[in-house]
Design a protein that fits this description.
Helix content: 40-55%
Radius of gyration: 37 Å
CATH topology of the largest domain: Phosphatase 2c, domain 1
Strand order of the largest sheet: 3-12-11-8-9
Oligomer: single chain
Order of helices and strands: HHHEEHHHHHEEEHHEEEEEEHHHE
CATH class of the largest domain: Alpha Beta
Number of helices: 13
Length: about 450
């Protein structure tokens, strides 16, 4: 019965230490311990903290046969494990002084045992190269220090018979409770350390992804109107990544005074690989697009290097068009990309007829077709990625082409490219009603204002 009561009392004492230990892991001093930036002032504070743990272990102990069953050594040993030998010895001396003040026939060996426990914790700290020891090492340390304490009691305490009787009563409960307490404490510390490392890595990754996103957004045109001196057309674009970085792309540039190139694409996959493939694609597109006014030839020339050494088997759907500013003629080719919509000035919405071709990066033997369309004054054109039509609501229904056509029909093109795009985005928001965005959403709006 006494043994059970003793276990209960020691566990209560240990629980207080564990609670305070958890609070300690939230302090700035604890971060200094993990970073190995502990100053002498910090060591002094640790000595006081773990010395207090030692005192508490004695005061919360159970008086038995002229001695005290306690968790005193746990405070000193933990001080050594976290702060090194000097912290462990300092905490042990505080616990030892308090124990000596209480007196008793085992006061001196108990005091020596507290100092020895602190020193042993410091040795383990050095053995693990100033890192937090694993749980098993902390529990073995508790077994060692309590065994040493019992041995010191048997060697020094008089009379021997009384010391032996005391040791028999307390050795098992003290070893078990101190080992569990040490193990739990170190488990808390190591878990906090792992969480901290995870947080740091996450913050670093988020920072790198934010930089990557800024770089990615810096690749595509972002100033509107892009050609303020050109009044023959109105042009706007937007790119909203579902994640920090994505694989959608768009571009536009003037070949000469009379020809404007328009492009939009969507890389397979998500995240950083897609963003890198996007950057390569848009670089190739600009390099090739300035050399020829033939859309099918542009796609073929971009496709060839994308297929070369494409071990990741990535591809990009791409739409490329050359618009004649003087006549409104639009020549275009598509590499498996959703066809843009023409929004007629007189009403009506129609998709551009699809051309032959497949995603770029799949095969160098793909042949790309070419087609033409005519934009009259006031006509608009919307280029988009499948993030528009495949946007889903809470019931996982897709926005789809019909809703897109309805939004374009209601908006018309008379109020400009930006208004046309905003109307589509508003219709998407109303449909998805706050559901999570799963894919990048990219649009390019174009309107022929008047003849050159």
């Amino acid at each position: 019965m006494l043994s059970i009561d003793l276990f209960v009392q020691l566990i209560k004492s240990m629980a207080v230490v564990i609670m305070v230990a958890y609070l300690f892991t939230r302090t700035r001093l604890y971060r200094q311990v993990l970073d190995q930036r502990l100053s002498w002032q910090g060591r002094g504070i640790l000595i006081l903290i773990f010395g207090a743990f030692s005192i508490w272990g004695t005061l919360a102990g159970v008086e038995i046969l002229g001695g005290i069953a306690n968790t005193r050594d746990m405070g000193a040993a933990l001080g050594g494990l976290l702060g090194g030998p000097w912290v462990g010895i300092g905490a042990g001396l505080i616990g030892a002084a308090q124990r000596l003040a209480m007196g008793g026939f085992v006061a001196v060996p108990s005091a020596l045992g507290a100092v020895a426990a602190g020193f042993s914790g410091g040795v383990v700290y050095l053995l693990f190269k100033r890192r937090v020891a694993p749980v098993w090492a902390a529990m073995l340390l508790a077994l060692f220090t309590e065994s040493c304490l019992m041995g010191i009691n048997l060697l020094m305490a008089k009379p021997f018979d009384a010391a032996l009787t005391l040791v028999r009563q307390v050795i098992v409960p003290m070893i078990i409770v101190n080992a569990i307490g040490m193990g739990v404490f170190i488990l808390i510390v190591r878990n906090e350390e792992r969480e901290r490392v995870t947080r740091i890595q996450k913050e670093r990754m988020e920072g790198e992804l934010n930089v990557a996103r800024e770089i990615q957004l810096g690749i595509v045109p972002a100033i509107f109107p892009p050609f303020p001196e050109r009044e023959e057309f109105d042009l706007h674009a937007s790119l909203e990544s579902a994640h920090e970085v994505g694989g959608d792309l768009y571009d536009f540039f003037l070949l000469d005074d009379d020809h404007l190139c328009l492009a939009i694409g969507d890389v397979s996959g998500k995240g950083v690989p897609a963003s890198l493939f996007m950057a390569v694609t848009i670089t190739l597109l600009r390099a090739v697009g300035h050399r020829t006014p033939l859309p099918d030839e542009v796609l073929a020339r971009v496709n060839a290097p994308l297929c070369h050494d494409n071990d990741a088997a990535m591809f990009v759907t791409l739409f490329f068009a050359v618009y004649d500013v003087r006549t409104g003629a639009l020549a275009y080719s598509s590499g498996g990309h959703p066809p843009p919509y023409i929004v007629r000035a007189g009403g009506g919405v129609e998709p551009l007829p699809q051309t032959a071709g497949a995603g770029l990066g799949v095969s160098s033997r793909v042949a790309f077709g070419v087609n033409t369309a005519q934009l009259e004054c006031g006509d608009g054109l919307l280029l988009y990625t499948d993030g528009v039509t495949e946007a889903m609501d809470a019931k996982e229904r897709m926005f789809g082409e019909e809703r897109l056509e309805a939004a374009l029909s209601a908006a018309g093109a008379q109020d400009g490219a930006a208004h046309m795009m905003a109307a589509v985005r508003a219709a998407m928001d109303a449909f998805t009603a706050g559901a999570e965005q799963y894919d990048d959403i990219t649009m390019v709006g174009f309107r022929r204002t008047h003849d050159a």
